Amino acid sequence: MPQVRLKLTLGELKDMIFQLPAQDLLALAEAIESRAETVAMMRLAETGFREWNEAGEDLYDADA
Predict the structure, then answer these.
(1) How many CA atoms within 13 Å lie on the side-chain side of 47?
(2) What whole-number distance in Å separates Cα of residue 64 and Cα of residue 56?
(3) Where are the domains of the chain?
(4) What are the φ and ψ backbone dihedral angles of 12, each rounded to 5 degrees?
(5) What is the pTM of this model?
(6) DSSP helix/strand/coil, 56
(7) HSE of 63 in the Cβ direction (CA atoms, 13 Å)?
């Protein structure tokens, strides 16, 4: 599926979003919240794997 890229400022995007019907606005808010939670959890999870990047920990890079 081709991606369309628009050059919008944050203010322009906000203005467009605020024109949505209430039901669509609430659905979008839930989708954004879910995505933000996922990103936050992924960032948190990355901190648990930093020790694997230390020198001498290359056993995790071995081919099975």
Answers:
(1) 4
(2) 18
(3) 22-52
(4) -65, -40
(5) 0.59
(6) coil
(7) 0
Residue 31 CA to residue 14 CA, distance in Å, equals 16
The residue written with tokens 């919008």 in the block is 8
Residue 34's nearest CA partner among 42, 46, 45 is 42
Runs of H (alpha helix) within the chain? 10-17, 22-47
Residue 13 tokens, joined: 């995007």
Q: Which two tokens stand for residue 5?
A: 């890229």
Length of the chain (residues): 64
- What type of residue is 45? A
Helix (H, G, I), strand (E, B) or coil at 53: helix
Task: Give the model confidence (pLDDT) of 16-57 as tens digits.
Answer: 999 999 999 999 999 999 999 999 998 888 777 766 666 666
